[in-house]
Amino acid sequence: MQASRGAAQIAKIKKRRQELAAKTRDADKRLADRLRRLQTHEMKIERKRETRRKIIVGAIVRAAQTSRTDISLDWLEEQIQALTRPDDRALFGLDVEPSADATDAEKAEPAAARSVPITSRQKKLLAKLVEERPRLAREFGVDPDKPELEQLGKAKATSLIGAMLERVNAQTPPDER
User: Is the pTM of this model over 0.85?
Assistant: First the structure.
């Protein structure tokens, strides 16, 4: 009787062991599936981030080409540092908000010391845009009554010209361009 009792216990233990092994395999499979879904989701998000970075850099370069500005890595880095949207700044590994020290330093320095001076060509183009489109100039922070174009740095002038020209081109029918 003891032998049959021992055999029954052994059979019961083996059955329990098989059940636990099956549960473990199922749990492993569920975890592997979840891990694969999370990795796929992360890859999708990273692709979106990379696309946004390319759009931003492309817009900066396009604005430079529109205003015929020479593009250098230093100039591009300056433009990226000047981004204002927190999401965009985070894409490039920058602080979400510019540091208070940098902001105070920028206020203390004159505009000419902070950036490269605006070129005469940029000044003429901006003056023409401001004169022809005063409402648009106001939207971009330039007072058409007393535009202080000399105080704009080359980088800001380039961005402003590009943005204004894009807006003008978007509002003008193709046959009138």
Answer: no
